[in-house]
Amino acid sequence: MTVAVACAAEADTRAVGRRLASLLRAGDVVLLSGELGAGKTVFASGVAEGLGVETPVVSPSFVLVRRYEGLMTLVHADLYRVGSSGEIEDLDLASDAADGVLVVEWGDVSEQSFGEDHLMVRITQDDEGVRTVALEPHGSWRSRPLGEVAP
Amino acid sequence: MTDAPAVLGIETSCDETAVAVVRGYRVLSNVLASQVDAHARFGGVVPEVAARAHVEAIRALTHRALAEAGMHQMDLDAIAATRGPGLAGALMVGFSYGKALAWALDTPFLGIDHMEGHLFAPRLDDPEYGPPAIVLLASGGHSQIVHLKDWGEYETLGSTIDDAAGEAFDKLARFLGLGYPGGPAIDRESEGGDPDAVRFPRALPDRPFDFSFSGLKTSVVTYVRKHHAAGTLPPIPDLAASIQEAIADVLVAKTFNAVEETGVRALAGGGGVLANRRLRARLAEEADRRGVALHLPSVAMCTDNGAMVAAAGVYRLGLGERTAPSADIDSSLRLG
User: Fold this and answer.
1) Which of A35, A81, A90 lies at the smallest CB-CB distance from B52?
2) Which of B171, B243, B333 to mutate to test the interface with A (most CBs of A within 10 A)?
3) Predicted ipTM?
4) Parts of chain B with a pLDDT under 70
5) Domain interval for residue A25
6) pTM of the shown model
């Protein structure tokens, strides 16, 4: 079942990502959804922190994929500039991240490309800029203790 | 100059397939797949990301670069190709092609750091340019300030902590419906606009040479939504000019921090963002005011190209370097 966390500040969004990291296993796929400026890269950077990645996480929008080494490899991808599911297949992200965790910004544009087993993270914001980070489990994610990501 | 080595340069680190022939630091030819097949590549907002696109283009482009240079491949003194950073699949195409061609021709092969290529690009337009210099490298994928201490000796003084400058241009242009690519769209739309119409925040992180553009993005999105709903949105040229000014202000301020801090009196640039006319004008104005020599390359030498890779190859060849046939790409290569 979906777990939603209210995040008033950027640090809160980052903290949800950081706590999610402790639930991650090799081969996991996390898809991020949210409008421009919602905080997808901030969330991904929290995941990286939680995985012990020491280099700063910067947006992969243009380079499409960035790899980071931590407790596990983090493959941080972004479909912002990628148009078709054919191109997504060409990128072959899943095998790139087989031994680590794959986090995909704008992953909702092609959810079906990543198989049933994934976590969908939807970040929305209200008029005051308060974000809601909703974690929506699919496949094996349904049996994981997602409630642990709440503060 | 005919005794200077002729080097073929191949660049396939991201979207663009590019091949050039350079003799010494003189460009004999410089061809891009996007020029050849403009319709397929710019028909939509979707760049070709697949390695396949590079595979399809590279052989014909190489032949074209040689033909335009008036050379036969047997006349090449070396072949240089981008080794990283970039997309692994894309890099692999140019790097493998370059290695194979060099092997077939029994000529030296050199794997080149893409960012070092950008550092050499201004040299192709301007023989006066050289170390020591401060170089602002800003594109969709990168934003950094490099201290060029000597050829081969580079120190990255600062870089973006979130989004690259070109990414801010592109995402905001798309958000405003101005089209793709975003940098040229904002440059164009801002003509006649008032850069002081909206005072968007200038994020200046504590570290004196680092950039941050994520806050600007969020601030513009929030501002536009609010004022659009209220029917008080300023005209697009004012918005575009205000966004451009915010980005240029930060790039200029941080760059000249580096100039002052190091005491280096020469400034250069590279990357697609350096094609922005307002940024170029602001850098020129500030350099002039401070008596700093400015070496901004032409727009064609700012964006990704094969000539810059070839130029770095000329330098590396002169050092007697060779990249072994067993060498591999390095998608996360970092400059100094």
Assistant:
1) A90
2) B171
3) 0.83
4) 1-2, 35-50, 336
5) 3-149
6) 0.91
